[in-house]
Amino acid sequence: MRIDFLTVLPEMFESPLGCSILKRAQNKGLVEFAVHNLRDYTTNKHRKVDDYPFGGEAGMVMQIEPIDRCISALKAERDYDEVIFTSPDGEMFNQPMANQMSMLGNIIILCGHYKGIDYRIREHFITKEVSIGDYVLTGGEIPAIIIADAIVRLIPGAIGDEQSALSDSFQDNLLAPPVYTRPAEYKGWRVPDILLSGHEAKIAQWRYDQALERTRRLRPDLLD
Ligand code: SAH
Question: What's the gap in Å between 42 CA and the centre of ligand 1?
Fold first, then answer.
């Protein structure tokens, strides 16, 4: 898989893509990331990529030309399965969407900024618009990193124990059951006896019951 990020703030990607599982996945050759500074694609001599909105609203709007030039240059090199735009009015990102996206080959994620992007970009280049929640952030970089993190960890081999991604919250529409580690007793607070019993089938049943109980209590909407 290859993910190309289009941004005016390439430095925001350095640390998130450069540590932990995302770094390891790149080193293992499971994913390739490329971060493109949209200012490298403008013909404006001051490297400006935004301008005032027509109709005189407040805020600045990202211009079509640098984004067109960047997307066109990338598409000339390879085919893309999706050109994604991060946007608060997009489809809500969730685990089923992450599962589906983790099976794609090459994707572009365009990060908006300021007041947003010239709408013609959305009409002519974007194939999917994704929101990470009903709130407004200053830019699409953090949403793009969240999307990348959620999908890359699902690529087989990205996380050590492959089973572990499948037993996380939202797979099977259930929240994850509680987990514990050593010591078995701390300040008198004991780990549930069943987990120390060594009885695999009973432990599996307990985990399922806990997942169901927590989902009913905390997120009944998932069971509908
Ligand atoms: N004026 C826009 C918000 C612009 S915020 C509106 O009202 O919809 C600037 C940029 O941040 C957006 O273009 C988008 O790329 C990103 N962004 C902000 N909130 C987001 C969210 N919840 N999900 C995904 N991207 C978001």
Answer: 22
